[in-house]
Amino acid sequence: MKSFFKFIVKALFLLIVTMVVLDIVYTVVYEQTNDRNKISYLYHSKDKNYDVVFLGSSRMNNHLVPKIFNDNGYKTFNFGVTRSRLEESALMLKLMVERNYKIKNLILQVDLNINTNDHSEAIRSLFMPYLHQSKIIRNHYKTIPEYNKLLYLPFYRYLHYDARIGFREMYYSLVHKKTNALENGGFNPLKSNPGKMIPADLSKYYPKRNIGYEEIKAICKKNNINLIAITTPMCMSTINRDYFNHIQSVYPEIRRFENAVTADAYFSTCGHMNKAGAIEFTKVVFNAFFKPKTKP
Q1: Residues 234-289: tens digit of each pLDDT
Q2: Up-side HSE of residue 54: CA atoms within 13 Å toward CB?
């Protein structure tokens, strides 16, 4: 019995040491990688100067083309992240401020993402490699139920979010296997839809006051960032387009562009425009708020 007890103690000790070592190895790899996704790029950058920054979900990532702004004399980057919610956008803005970004204008997509105050597990995971190093990230997540386990149990965060920051992603980060996340100024174009457009159904969506959006507004006010909150296009066959009317009843300041592009030929899916649609939409947004500094 005594020998068995010693075996258990040694096994536990070896397990703990292994988890500590793995945690250190994974973290060191992620600390050296800045080109796998927009969050790693943001975390490792500092002192950036932008005339315009774009934030939001895939409906920003796929919808606004920085090149059109850049060709008119504005330095821009699209930090929209597919599957993200306003909570993650708020944390990204906090990191930008901490890293001494100088931002004149923030164009924020606020439409389907104010339907919930929930978070995106997939995108939350991308912040976890930097949990120990970043006070901003720790403070942002200190109230979530699993916070203590994520912070204090070695290697737990990598096991918990294995699908996004596990061995495969760590290996790709180690060998610096690039993705297309940072290409085209952060804009990710979608292909055209060759088939019939399937209507999106917003009948179960209802706008509500959003904690992440409130945080973003407060950060912009404190740091003299001109916040431009906008809706983005949906195909005309969308069920319950009245959803967009309710948005302004909650937040009247949000500028409406859900009808800026309407032809199905400009959409990849009912909720996402293709490259041609994104170009047309970007021109509409630019002309609504800006004037050319230089000739295109």
Answers
A1: 999 999 999 999 999 999 999 999 999 999 999 999 999 999 999 999 999 999 99
A2: 33
Between CA 131 and CA 208 the distance in angstroms is: 30
Which residues, including other chains, have CB under 8 Å from residue 163's CB and lie 6 or more apart? 122, 125
pTM, to two decimals:
0.94
In this structure, which amino acid lies at residue 252? P
Residue 225: name the closest of 137, 107, 85, 123 by CA: 107
Give dist(CA 204, CA 211) in Å, integer. Answer: 20
pLDDT at 295: 59
Q: Are 122 and 160 in contact (CB under 8 A)?
A: no
DSSP string, 109-170: E-SGGGS-----HHHHGGGGGGTTT-HHHHHHHTTSTTHHHHHHSTTHHHHHTHHHHSHHHH
Specify the residue for token string 């803005």: 93
Q: Which long-range contacts (CB under 8 A, 24 or more apart) does 158-163 make?
A: 158/22, 158/23, 158/26, 158/128, 158/129, 160/128, 161/121, 161/124, 161/125, 161/128, 163/122, 163/125
Determine how β-strand 226-230 pairs with β-strand 102-109.
Answer: parallel
Closest to 278 (Cα-Cα) out of 104, 78, 122: 78
pLDDT tens-digit series, residues 73-106: 999 999 999 999 999 999 999 999 999 999 999 9
